[in-house]
Structures are given as C-alpha cells and as structure tokens.
What does this fold into?
Amino acid sequence: MLKDYSISDTISKKIHFFHGNSMTYLSYEKLLNQFSKDYNIKCSILRPLTKKNTFIKFKNWDIFLDDYLDSIKYEKDIIGIGHSIGGNILLKASILYPEKFKKVFLLDPTFFTPLTIYAWKLISLFNLQSKFLPLIDRAKNKKMSYDNINQMYQSYRKYKVFSNFSDQDLETFIKSLVVKSGDSYQLVFDRSWDAQIYKTGLVNDMFIWKNLTNFSVECYILQAENSDTFLNKTKNKVIKLNKSIKILTIKDSDHLFPINNYIETTKVLKKFIN
It folds into this structure.
C-alpha cells in the first residue's frame, strides 16, 4: 500500500519511501521533510499497518513485495528509498521491474551473503530460528501497551539500539510507534508480525544474488559503519558482482542512522539523488 506523504500538482519528481520492520513511515518524518518541498513523496506501508493487518503465518517476505508491486502497476520514474527490510524489498522490486525505477537508495538494507542465506534455510528447516536470533523471542514478548509516553521512554532508553538517540529524538521516535487508546498508548505494529518478519528474512534472497550481475538500475547502498544487516562480507561480494552499484559508509553510525542521524543521511542522499 502506498500512502501520500507530501503531494503537489506542481512537482513532477517522485520518491517512494519504504520503512523498516516494527516502525512506521512517521518514524522517518525528519528525514522525509528534507525532501518534501522538491519531491512528491509516497510511503509504502508494510501490511501490519494496513487494513490487511490480520496476522497470517507467511514463509518469506514476498508477501510484502507483492503488496508493493500491486501498488506500482501504473508508476514510473520512481526514486526509491528503503530502510532495512524496506531496502530489501525495494531492491527486489527494481530487479523485477527496472523500467519503473529511476534510482534506488538502500539504507542499511537487510541483505546477507549466500552462505548465510543457505545456513538460515537449514536453521529454518528445523525451526531453530529463535535460538540463533534472540530478536524473534524479544519481538514475540514485547510489551504492546503503555500507561504514558514517559513509561515507554524509560523502557526503550535502556536498549543499546537507542543509545545514539538524543532524549528528544527518542521521544519523537516513540510517539511515531503508538496510538492513544483510551487511557493507554498502544503500539501500532503488532508483535506477531514483528516476530514473523525476523523469522522469515533471508529465505528468498538468493533471488537477489542470481540477478545482481545484470542489475541495471542506478543503485546506491548506504551502509552503517556498525551495521548488523549489511556486513562487509556482503558489501565485498556486491562490489565484485556489480561495480556500478555504489556503496557508501555512514561514519559512526548504526542501523537506525536514517532516524538518529537524518542530517548526514540527507546530505548523502541529496548529493546523489539529482
């Protein structure tokens, strides 16, 4: 599903933005606002945040790829920007339909080497994913309701993943994840979807490797210096297979740099987006 973020009849250039797992497009509001004056921006919304949010046990991320492809049937000249799982899906979409895309920017995409993919397939065969990726059980058991924003803030502040967030940025980020429901605040991204996304990643990603050599869309990968989703082993193999793909490292950054370091992200994107 595509949701209008910033649309003007006087602007012809367009951006499609694809958010990461367990987040919403509003989590990236500060980044998106840097482009809203010059581009029509549409945000691709993962199914858990749409009217199709009834949980189903899916086997891979193709369910989200198909949703996105359905929404771009009549689109062209897309500048795609995707973070994490959003980068993975955007890359697959542009491999399948290169004629629809002008450029793609993958922000620390979830993409691993063939060896890791085959290992994950074997792990999945025996349903052992949770033993190798603690994030799955953490997502399954995450608290879905908070009495107030401060309670949620105190809970999130203790996690290492948010250590690079200022107090204000973390509070803004938290507010993007919840809706007010009665006297409490409810997370909008259901934990069942969250956990299943972690559990089913990588499974179909050999499709990317098999098509990467001949991939022709202008592509930029922004890698976090401390990435845990796009490792140097993956980077080196990508460079070997397709030298036209440009890979840039965001210094002193982690996986959430599009949110906690949106200023540097904007600088890099604006340098190459035009």
Notes: The domain at 2-124+203-273 is CATH 3.40.50.1820 (Rossmann fold). The longest strand covers residues 101-107. The radius of gyration is 18 Å.
